[in-house]
Amino acid sequence: MLDRMSVVYTTFDTEAEARRIGEDLVANNLAACVNIFPKIISIYRWQNEFHNGDEVAMMVKTTQINVAKVMAEVRRLHSAETPALFEITTGMVDEDYLSFLNQNTQ
Question: What are the residue ranges spanned by the domains of the chain?
Fold first, then answer.
């Protein structure tokens, strides 16, 4: 039986860091694919300071069983003290894509 798909979302200050971590996740079979969105605008408050600037977003496509491992690896490699890091659960997923996902995350 195929494991269900989950997406892990995170952000980075630079595209280089996102690429490096994304490549690590795919190379170590923790993700079948990552999507990097090179320019997003983030507005947030951190340690009582207002921030408004560019960031890089990443969506990590993985299986539910690998979510904790993906999050641990991203946290280990990420330059931020507290990165935005959370799971997005999926509903229906194309059967062929789910098969691809499972084959590439074992």
Answer: 5-103
Cβ contact 30:66 at 8 Å: yes
5-103, CATH topology level: Alpha-Beta Plaits (3.30.70)
Dist CA 90 CA 4 (whole Å): 8
Contacts of 14 (CB under 8 A, 6+ apart): 56
| Segment 45-79, tens digit of pLDDT | 989 999 999 999 999 999 999 999 999 999 999 99
Look up tokens 């509903």; give the residue: 91
Total-model pTM = 0.93
Among 20, 14, 4, 7, smallest CA distance to 80 is for: 14
